[in-house]
Design a protein that fits this description.
- The chain is built from 20 helices and 30 strands.
- The chain has 766 residues and is of the alpha/beta class.
- The chain has 4 domains: 145 residues, no CATH class; 194 residues, Leucine Aminopeptidase, subunit E, domain 1; 172 residues, 3-Layer(aba) Sandwich (Leucine Aminopeptidase, subunit E, domain 1), CATH 3.40.220.10; 190 residues, Phosphoenolpyruvate Carboxykinase, domain 3 (Alpha-Beta Complex).
- The strands form 6 sheets. The protein has a 7-stranded mixed β-sheet with strand order 3-4-9-8-5-7-6, sandwiched between helices. A 7-stranded mixed β-sheet has the order 10-11-16-15-12-14-13, sandwiched between helices. Strands 21-22-29-25-23 form a 5-stranded antiparallel β-sheet, sandwiched between helices.
């Protein structure tokens, strides 16, 4: 059940949003799976960069365009990580306060170390006026460049009008001109410029690229021969920005577009989803996923799209399809490796010969959901069904666009979606173009989602609107937000604090002073951080930044654990949480006996986890069956346990009385006792039901970091420890297999400071 809540923002909350709005959004997304919109806070715009930044890309730098203009000025377009780009100066998309707390600004500051923020703070003290269009220079710290040029682009409303964009264009041009002025002043020969203002500052991407490239061209026409910079690199890590920069350069700098370039014609941003329409060949795409269409007999030589993909991929793709035929069981979507293609995976839609347009929406939705659940961030579709199936092009365009729009409403992760139309299919392109322009005019969620509209909603009071995939996630996020504005201290309990390295502690040190104290805590196996000081918004801002660093550490931990699993399993590390009807949940009585009401049950499906679980059973030579056991965990770790299994960091007991391992309870009631300290004010409790291989057990002790030897041989250890009849402790996460995640409700009054505005059940495959 998708849900939206509104949380009123008092004066303290507005200050917090002013201080670290993007950071607050990131933490809400990581802890609760919620997206947040700040409404009625135009006087307190979100700080952070003008360009979106979700972390460095996993691909190597790629040059996409190169041209030499008059007097030797070279211009290039790159898809690359700006924090690792070797130039004299990188350009930071900064805010007026030079507070590098979100987006690209935070990424550069984090990679470069605390000196970047310190120098920026010193600059602010010496310069009373630093406005939109201005630029300042600091040293680059640990970055592989000499300097950072901090440029302030214009900040637009979340849904800018043509007038808003027109008024902002001169300010964006001024910001780029200021970059060139600073480069000349500091004798910097090469600069790397991102798509300033296009992300959090809401400048439409296509117009942003046009303004930046046009400014580069005017600079080339006016500059003195040999004056710096002599090399201008337009660098972005996300594909839509790279494409738009490439398009603008080919149109404005090289006279005419190259016939080989795939031109982005229309781009629509819908929450976390960017939809792009362009001409090109589907088999040449470099997105994470390419979608193919083929017949139920799995013959890839049938159909123009399938044939082109098969020829580029090679014979091994057809062989894998034939192997998949044994396990189809009425599936309509088959996954294969890319082989000779430049994507990461191919999704094959299986069409029956009598397929009608009614089956299109669910299967397109299934592709999108599958791409997100398998960890992908980009997917390319051909004009599905317009070839041999002979469906009307306008119908197909409408259905595909609607599927993306509904997916965007429910998606909590970034996804780039491409509609790729074959270059000669002009009529097909025109049908999709008409539908895209309709989306541009109305890129808000469907009316069934937004609910009623009233004059008061046009200018809402200051509030934070939370959107989540479930009612419980939104309500827990709202309750947590209500504790922030009154905080004189910010307490974080999270054992991943122990994974902080030198860079994280350098950043923590840069925040201390001026009344702030940040203290690491560790007691009874529970680690955390406490931030104290004043004013309140500074304490909360520092606490949120610590939480954001923890999110990054957890993501890195999960990547390393996934790599280790992939070495032990022949199957890809992919996971799904499939909803189960709670009324028919076979183990529901166990929770009802504990006085809990089940809200939601998800079945965990992760073949790789099952493989390592079975491998561990063979290693331990266990002959007894696993036990059905329970663990209560914080909500933010539900995704991780489904992905990489159990870790001792998730749910340490209040006191590790039976050893420093992973604790499980043999009943739900016992689990409530073991983890009674865990967020006692939460409205919902999250349990994992698991199969646990306890094997040969012995009573535990607080000093044990491994099970003791069974006998005289120190290499033969017990398999687990016991803590009386109700608790078991294992020391390898692979001894436990998560089966169900069960969300329960306890009798707590709902938060009075938020109002539920709409709950919507989305009939979309998950």
């Amino acid at each position: 059940m998708a849900c939206r809540l509104e949380v009123p923002a008092n004066r303290d909350m507005i200050k917090i949003v002013r201080q670290c709005g993007p950071t607050l959004k990131n933490v809400l997304r990581s802890k609760f799976g919620c997206t947040a919109d700040f409404l009625g806070m135009d006087s307190a715009p979100e700080p952070g960069s003008g360009a979106s930044w979700s972390g460095p890309p996993k691909t190597t730098p790629k040059k996409r365009f190169h041209v030499q203009l008059r007097d030797g000025l070279e211009v290039t377009v790159w898809k690359a990580d700006l924090t690792a780009f070797p130039v004299d100066a990188v350009v930071n998309a900064a805010n007026n306060m030079l507070d590098h707390c979100g987006g690209l600004a935070y990424a550069l500051s984090k990679a470069g170390g605390p000196d970047i923020q310190k120098e920026s703070d010193a600059f602010k003290k010496d310069h009373f006026s630093f406005g939109t269009g201005d630029a300042a220079v600091t040293n680059a710290g640990l970055l592989p460049c000499k300097k950072i040029i901090h440029a302030v682009g214009p900040c637009l409303p979340s849904e800018p009008t043509e007038k808003d964009v027109s008024l902002a264009e001169p300010l964006l041009e001024k910001a780029v001109q200021s970059v060139f002025h600073q480069a000349a002043q500091h004798r910097l020969k090469s600069v790397a410029i991102p798509a300033l203002s296009s992300g959090l500052f809401n400048f439409p991407l296509a117009q942003c690229a046009d303004v930046i490239v046009a400014t580069v061209k005017r600079h080339a026409e006016r500059r003195e021969k040999g004056s710096p910079p002599t090399h201008v690199h337009l660098v972005n890590h996300d594909e839509p920005s790279v494409r738009e920069m490439e398009r603008a350069c080919r149109e404005k700098l090289s006279g005419s577009p190259s016939p080989s370039i795939q031109i982005s014609t229309l781009t629509v941003k819908m929450q976390q989803v960017t939809l792009t329409l362009r001409k090109g060949k589907i088999e040449e795409q470099e997105t994470d996923v390419i979608v193919n269409t083929t017949t139920e007999n799995l013959d890839l030589s049938v159909g123009a799209v399938s044939k082109a993909i098969s020829q580029r991929a090679g014979k091994r793709m057809q062989q894998e399809m034939e192997e998949n035929a044994k396990h189809l069981q009425h599936r309509r979507l088959v996954f294969t490796q890319p082989y000779g293609l430049r994507c990461k995976e191919v999704f094959h839609i299986l069409w029956a010969s009598e397929a009608t347009k009614e089956v299109f929406f669910p299967v397109i939705s299934e592709c999108l959901v599958a791409a997100a659940s398998r960890g992908h961030t980009s997917i390319a579709f051909p004009a599905v069904g317009t070839g041999s199936l002979g469906l009307r092009k306008r119908d197909v365009a409408q259905i595909m666009a609607l599927a993306v729009k509904v997916f965007a409403v429910d998606s909590l992760k970034r996804m780039d979606v491409d509609f790729v139309i074959y270059p000669t299919e002009d009529d097909t392109f025109m049908s999709f173009e008409a539908e895209m322009r309709t989306l541009q005019l109305d890129s808000s969620p469907p009316r069934s989602w937004t609910g009623r509209e009233s004059p008061s909603e046009a200018t809402p009071p200051p509030q934070i609107r939370l959107s989540a995939a479930s009612r419980e996630a939104a309500r827990e996020a709202a309750r947590w937000l209500g504790t922030l504005s009154s905080s004189v201290s910010y307490v974080i309990r999270n054992n991943f604090v122990q994974y902080f390295g030198v860079r994280e502690f350098q950043r923590l040190q840069s925040w201390t002073g001026s009344g702030l104290v940040i203290q690491e805590t560790f007691q009874n196996g529970n680690a955390g951080m406490t931030v104290r000081g004043e004013p309140t918004e500074e304490v909360v801002a520092a606490g949120l930044r610590v939480e954001e660093m923890l999110c990054a550490v957890q993501e890195e931990f999960a990547r390393e654990a996934e790599l280790a699993m992939s070495l032990r399993s022949t199957r890809s590390v992919s996971h799904e949480a499939k909803p189960v009807d709670s009324a028919n949940f076979a183990h529901g009585d166990e929770f009802r006996r504990a006085g809990l009401q089940i809200v939601r049950v998800d079945r965990v499906e992760n073949p790789a986890l099952r493989d390592v679980f079975e491998l561990k059973r063979k290693q331990l030579e266990l002959r007894v069956s696993p036990r059905q056991m329970y663990q209560r965990i914080p909500a933010q770790f539900c995704e991780m346990v489904s992905h990489i299994g159990f870790q001792r960091e998730y749910a340490p007991p209040e006191e590790a009385a039976f050893g420093e391992g992973i604790y499980f309870a043999r009943s739900v009631g016992e689990a409530q006792k073991v983890w009674a300290h865990q967020a006692p004010r939460e409205e919902f409790l999250y349990f994992v039901q698991a199969q646990v291989q306890t094997g040969n057990s012995t009573p535990g002790r607080p000093d044990l970091i491994l099970p003791p030897p069974v006998g005289d041989d120190p290499l033969v250890l017990y398999d687990s420890l016991t803590g009386g009849p109700g608790v078991s402790v294992v020391f390898s996460g692979h001894q436990a297999l998560p089966e169900y995640i069960v969300v329960c409700e306890k009798p707590v009054e709902p938060p009075s400071f938020c109002s539920e505005i709409q709950t919507l059940e989305m009939n979309v495959p998950r």
